[in-house]
Amino acid sequence: MTMTIAEADKILTANFAPWVLELGLSVAELGDQRAVLRMPWSQRLAREGGALSGQALMAAADTTTVIAVSAARGAFVPMTTVQQSTSFQRAVTDSDVLIEAALTKLGRRMAFADIAMTAERTGELAARASTVYALLG
């Protein structure tokens, strides 16, 4: 029940807080059990020293999981983060980031995902995350 990229982009604009929208995320790819979002490089999201903020990466991973679950279910349903664990492997400087969430289990009430965050310019893995969601609807 995969949705279109246009439908997934509408989920972004209709269901996320204004500060999340300011990350500039856009849907790059969708599959039955995965989603890839792009976060454009912005100096506003960088911390001292020019590296992309970890908070921005964590919010992008969380948001990408919502899109992956929505694509797998065929529509947005209310859900909430139960757990998120992130490991940072290298700094991202002056590069868009591709965030890929792959669902490892999708049940009626819970969803689990693994997320890879890659610097688009170099192809290097910047961070990994895992998330657990409670599906409310």
Polypeptide structure, described:
Strand 1 and strand 2 form a beta hairpin. The relative contact order is 0.20. This protein has a 6-stranded antiparallel β-sheet. The protein is built from 3 helices and 6 strands, in the order H-H-E-E-H-E-E-E-E. The chain is an alpha+beta fold. It has helices at 5-15, 18-21, 54-73; strands spanning 26-31, 34-39, 79-88, 97-106, 110-119, 125-135.
In short:
The chain is an alpha+beta fold and 137 residues long. It is built from three helices and six strands; from the N terminus they run ααββαββββ.
List the defining traits of the structure above.
39% strand; 6 strands; six-stranded antiparallel β-sheet; alpha+beta; 137 residues; single chain
Mean pLDDT across the residues is 95
Specify Rg, calculated over alpha carbons. Answer: 14 Å
Largest sheet: 6 strands, antiparallel
Apparent shape:
globular
* N/C terminus separation: 17 Å
> What is the ordering of alpha helices and beta strands?
HHEEHEEEE
Produce the secondary structure layout.
Blueprint: H1 5-15, H2 18-21, E1 26-31, E2 34-39, H3 54-73, E3 79-88, E4 97-106, E5 110-119, E6 125-135
